[in-house]
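Lecture 7 notes: from sequence to structure.

We start with a single chain of 159 residues. Read the sequence below before looking at the structure.
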Amino acid sequence: MKNVSITTTTTMQHIYNKMLQETQHKLLESIYNDFGISHGIEFEQLVSYANQYKITTQLEEDNPPKHKIKRKNIPEDQRCQARIWGDGYLDTKHYKKYNNKIVSKLNPSAFGKQCNKKKNKDDIYCTSHANKLVHGNYYLVPSDTVIGYYLAVRVVGKF
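Now the structure, written as tokens:
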């Protein structure tokens, strides 16, 4: 018996097995209709020939890690002061709202997270945020636009 091996992920294992069986049968029917009849080959002969090949699948780990990234814990006084999206983090205990409008911004750190990179020498931002500061400074109250994005994602459920 000849072996044909196909490598799949665990999530694809079941789908491949079912598709392989269905596809093999359709392929044999097509070959029989196109060539078998005109060449005097019976369908059972094609099935017998195809059964000489055992098609198997081999499992592989889903999305194997390429390498682990070791993050350094940078002391807070050496960290970049940029506000990052932080998956839309919103600490609802640190702001007050009325009719979905912010009345009091009690704590600037209620919106987003602080960048975890080391700040540049003689600067308060890392290289990335020294060039492009989208969400503002983590220690300052964010603009109404930035606050609006956080509220839209976490409170209203938009975006």
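Residues 2-60 form one domain. Keep this in mind for problem set 3.
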